[in-house]
Amino acid sequence: MSNKIHVSTKVNGDAVEFLCDPRETLLDVLRDRLNLTGAKEGCGTGDCGACSVTVDGRLICSCLMLGAEAEGKEIGTIEGVAEGGELHPLQRKFIEHAALQCGVCTPGILVAAKNLLEKNPDPTEEQVRYWLAGNLCRCTGYDKIIRAVLDAAEEMRGAA
Amino acid sequence: MKYHTPASFADAAAIAASASGVTRFLAGGTDVLVQMRSDIVMPDDLIDIKHIDGVKDITQNADGSWTLGVAVAGAEMSEHPTLGKDWPGLVEATDLIGSTQVQGRATLVGNLCNGSPAADSVPAQVAAGVTMTVTGPNGDRVAAVEDLPAGPGRLNLEKGEVISAVHIPARGDNAGDAYLRFIPRTEMDIAVVGCGISLRLDGDTITEARVSLGAVAPTVLLVEDCAKAIIGTTLDDAALDALAKAAEAACNPIDDKRGTIEFRTDVAGVLARRAAKIAYARAKGE
Ligand code: FES
Ligand code: FES
Description:
The complex is a heterodimer of chains A (about 160) and B (about 290).
Chain A: E1 5-11, E2 14-20, H1 26-33, E3 52-55, E4 58-61, E5 74-76, H2 89-96, H3 106-119, H4 125-131, H5 143-159
Chain B: E1 2-4, H1 9-18, E2 23-26, H2 32-37, E3 45-48, E4 58-60, E5 66-68, H3 74-79, H4 83-86, H5 88-95, H6 100-103, H7 108-113, H8 121-128, E6 131-136, E7 139-144, E8 149-151, E9 154-155, E10 162-168, E11 175-182, E12 193-202, E13 205-214, E14 221-222, H9 224-230, H10 237-250, H11 261-283
Parallel strand pairs in B: 1-3, 2-3
Antiparallel strand pairs in B: 4-5, 5-10, 6-7, 6-10, 8-9, 11-12, 12-13, 13-14
Helix pairs in contact in B: 5-8, 9-10, 10-11
One FE2/S2 (inorganic) cluster binds near residues 42, 46, 47, 50 and 61 of chain A.
């Protein structure tokens, strides 16, 4: 099988080109071809959210999209969340609230939470819980994650 | 696997018609990629229809009806400023499918074409009277959603046929729709029973109704007897009893760990009552 597809896309604002097999998912491409290993594969079937990224600003599971579909799109991953050496408020609040243990779910949750706060800077706890319902965490029991997101939202509103 | 990106539905249909192996169309991919990953299906030809003009458009036509592109995602329907005002039941049913991430990609047409009798948006589509344009090697035809499922995982589509547009009727005055499902938890689960209802009123009296049940038979059902039970009534207790009875009578469910035959049958009646009340209140503008 050598019908590799040439794809031009943007990842975290940078123009990127890659060759991929048509069966490769965007998650495979990010991790194995672009060395962006922040997005994790928890399940590979859209159930856990560990592979969450944005495509043209829309939150998706990168395990449920082909690399070939990225042509002409703008991809956002966890690697683009911090600004240079400066952690994003969500990242700082996750550390402050101890909202992670093993960390496998964390990149996906941060990408998902950032996407929520861009659409809705002042979500209720219920809205945060529903928004993140597709992000499974087997360690924290979720509550610290929710507190961290709400606290970060409050700080970001104050700064704006 | 060959990955195709045709620029028209006629081209997409031609690729599928001449393909000799397993063919799949790709829109949101939330079922196709899972099947590929789980080694259930590995297509020889995968036809991505998202390079075709208009597949992401939500358009309200001059007569009030709606045309949706086949790659419009659930999140795009939910965020639309007016679609959900016309058809709240249909938009809410679609929004029930999967997580935020799945909503970013999953489509109405994919939900239909996956062929699950438990697909949440399908009873709502049937109740709303949604039709689909089907493009095939010999041109276009229009099919009602209730005529497309043939059984679990199977559709009444010929080789080379692809759904190319979604048509939602004009809502019109004094009308409302609703969809309810039962699941054992609050989010992200597969319907044990689903019920979609759309109706229109003249004053307090129901003049038109469509009632659809999901997950109680091999395909989503359009239940005429349920509609008859409430047309001409003001949805009083007698009408609700007749509606529930007709819903129960239409059930031919499976028995599994998610729900017994008895349970699914009973819940179908309960959901029909509740969905009818919501649709009625919406039709009254309440
Ligand atoms: S790896 Fe994509 S949802 Fe689990
Ligand atoms: S911190 Fe371990 S899965 Fe969430």
